[in-house]
Design brief:
The chain is of the alpha+beta class and about 400 residues long. It has helices at about 1-15, 95-105, 130-145, 150-165, 175-180, 225-240, 255-260, 265-290, 295-310, 315-325, 355-370, and strands at about 20-30, 40, 45-55, 60-65, 75-80, 115-120, 185-190, 195-200, 205-215, 330-340, 345-350, 375-380, 385. The protein has a 6-stranded mixed β-sheet. Strands 10-11-9-12 form a 4-stranded antiparallel β-sheet. The structure holds alpha-D-galactopyranose. Alpha-D-galactopyranose binds near residues 171, 174, 175 and 340.
Length: about 400
């Protein structure tokens, strides 16, 4: 990938002298879904797949972007003097938003740059191709312009800020944080209310994390994601008439049950119930994992799926088939939809000796029930962004 980007860079811009290459990972979330913007906990890990860039500073104010994954779109050009989002800018609204957010923070970007990117995360799969592109862009800017005071947590916050305020998607911090702070062989337990985090080694002994792509593309900006978030905010306001909490993540299940009648609508009540229970489930799941109780972790993953399916209604029929078929297979420790939802992937923990059977049976059942062929990735947990 790296050489391909450098070659393309030379072809587009005359030579590749002084070009640097960079990488930022995608992520998969093991448990803790739709809890981040509700002040709860998440437990994602960075992947070894992600987005790569070859980049170099220019002497003028022009910015050129090119993606080898979207070569049909050609070179997309903008300037430091024109950083408004536009439909014509397509995918470059993500890196443009990050440049805009850097400047908005008072970070100095005195010249434009040329950047060729390429990625190996299937787009729309829910493995955070956009967050990895945002973190990658921030990482490139920090390096090109010597902005060494910007930390990796800042890169995550800037990515989220630009996605919220430039791209109109009210995402939480999980994806950008997982990409910017990833650590090989570890998942990250992140308290999204405080940004306190700890790494937890994922030593599954005789099992692997398997991601299954439903091939149903999710489109979060247009989807019900922002609506889910608004419903949770409204439910929180209603609960706050009874209990003194800052976020849904502050509530225990018991406190929620004792006060849920303050929520004046059944759908809103279920959305909030998911957020409260999922947060507690995430804390318990990580405790179980630390004790080496992978079976308990898997059970909690399954409960997470049921809650996303029934209470949050952010699954889709295809991902329900993937998870429910997985639960039937001996050797599957847990399986659930992962990420924003409404399509995308499931994540499963599968015993090594069951992986082949898992792939065969899921493929057959999915073809029969949904007329689609799934794709599988056996996950390796990687590091955060790097330059090489
Ligand atoms: C998307 C968002 C995240 C998070 C998940 C759901 O991936 O970008 O912030 O809310 O959905 O857990």
């Amino acid at each position: 990938m790296k050489q391909q980007l450098v070659d393309k860079f030379a072809e587009l811009f005359g030579d590749a002298e002084g070009v640097s290459t960079y990488f930022a990972p995608g992520r998969v979330n093991l448990i803790g879904e739709h809890t981040d913007y509700n002040g709860g906990h998440v437990f994602p890990c960075a992947l070894t797949i992600g987005t790569y860039a070859a980049a170099r500073k220019r002497n003028d104010r022009t910015i050129n972007f090119y993606s080898i994954n979207q070569s049909g779109k050609g070179l997309i050009t903008t300037s430091l003097d024109d950083l408004t989002p536009s439909d014509a800018a397509g995918w470059t609204n993500y890196p443009k938003g990050v440049v805009w957010a850097f400047i908005g923070r008072g970070l100095e970007i005195p010249t434009g740059f040329d950047m060729v990117i390429g990625g190996d995360i299937p787009a729309g799969s829910g493995l955070s191709s956009s967050a990895s592109l945002e973190v990658l862009t921030g990482f490139v800017l920090r390096d090109l312009y010597g902005l060494h005071d910007v930390t990796n947590i800042d890169l995550a916050l800037i990515g989220q800020y630009s996605e919220n305020n430039y791209n109109g998607m009210n995402c939480g911090i999980m994806d950008q944080f997982a990409s910017a702070m990833g650590k090989k062989d570890n998942a990250i337990l992140l308290d999204c209310a405080t940004l306190e985090y700890e790494y937890a080694p994922i030593a599954l002994k005789d099992a692997k994390i398997v991601v299954t792509n439903s091939k149903v593309k999710h489109s979060l900006v247009d989807s019900a994601y922002n609506e889910r978030r608004a419903f949770c905010e409204k439910a929180l306001e209603e609960l706050q008439t009874r209990v003194n909490v800052k976020t849904l993540g502050d509530l225990t299940e018991e406190e929620f049950e004792a006060n849920k009648d303050a929520i004046g609508d059944e759908v809103r009540m279920r959305r909030a119930r998911h957020a409260v229970y999922e947060n507690r489930r995430t804390i318990r799941a990580v405790e179980a994992l630390k004790k080496g109780d992978v079976a308990e972790f898997g059970k909690l993953m399954n409960q997470s799926h049921v809650s996303l399916r029934d209470d949050y209604e952010s699954s889709c029929p295809e991902c329900d088939v993937l998870a429910e078929e997985a639960w039937k297979i001996d050797g599957v420790i847990g399986s659930r939809i992962t990420g924003g939802g409404f399509g995308g992937c499931t994540v499963s923990i599968v015993r090594d000796d069951a992986i082949d059977v898992f792939k065969e049976r899921i493929t057959a059942a999915y073809k029969e029930k949904c007329s689609l062929t799934p794709e599988f990735y056996v996950v390796s947990i990687g590091d955060g962004p790097y330059k090489d």
